[in-house]
Amino acid sequence: MPDEFDALAECPLFEGVSRQDLAAMLQCMQARTVDVPKGGTVFRAEEPAEYVGILLSGSVRVLREDYDGNRAIQAAIGPGELFGETFACAGVGRLPVSVEADRPSRALLIQLKRIIETCPSACGFHNRVVLNLLKVLAAKNLMLNGKLDITSRRTTREKLLAYLASQARAAGSNRFVIPFDRQGLADYLGVDRSALSVEIGKLRREGVIESERSAFKLLKR
């Protein structure tokens, strides 16, 4: 459990909440943990959108599937990050996405109403958590706008370079590791995997990037 508390301490939903208050808060909010094997789902599309999820360990991906069964990755989630909160807060009723583990994972689930409704025990941390949730939603909106800017580029090359540049900025370095393998990156960018591999090869030969699996280095633009 210490490692899980470390993940929760990093979660923006609990910013400003002491570690001592955290255990009491989770009990008050009736939080529960779920263990998910690789390939298993935390949330499935069309399920009620009532829970806020926090990843404690492992990694999960938010997936959207179209009528023909084509899957697109909307986001990769790591320990301490939230998922499902946007749909729960929007009151959409049913989830339009699934959340799937790409390795064995553990998540904490809290019903949204347990976060936003007045606590009968008048716990002092509730107002803080609600304010934090508003900040999380605003940050998620900025992130989605950033993804839209990337995926709206015309070519696979432009999308790839825009994505790699965004990852370099986030890492504060021209060396970084992305949270996707080749197929995952293709699904995130909405491009064909073969075309993506071709572009990565071209950029390596041109001396624009170095890459080894999920590790990249931007050399020049």
Put the structure in a nutshell:
With 221 residues, this protein is an alpha+beta fold. 43% of the residues lie in helices and 24% in strands.
Radius of gyration: 19 Å
Approximate helicity band: 40-55%
Q: What structural class results from the helix and strand content? A: alpha+beta
Calculate the mean pLDDT score and round it.
89
The major β-sheet equals: 4 strands, antiparallel
Q: What's the helix count?
A: 8
What overall geometry do the principal axes of the alpha carbons give? elongated
User: Which residue ranges are poorly predicted, with pLDDT under 50 across at least 5 consecutive positions?
Assistant: none
Count of individual beta strands: 11
Strand order, largest beta sheet = 1-8-3-6
Distance between the termini: 45 Å
Can you write the helix and strand succession as a string? HHEEEEEEHEEHHHEHHEE
Query: Strand-residue fraction?
Result: 15-25%
Key terms:
single chain, 221 residues, alpha+beta, four-stranded antiparallel beta sheet, 8 helices, elongated
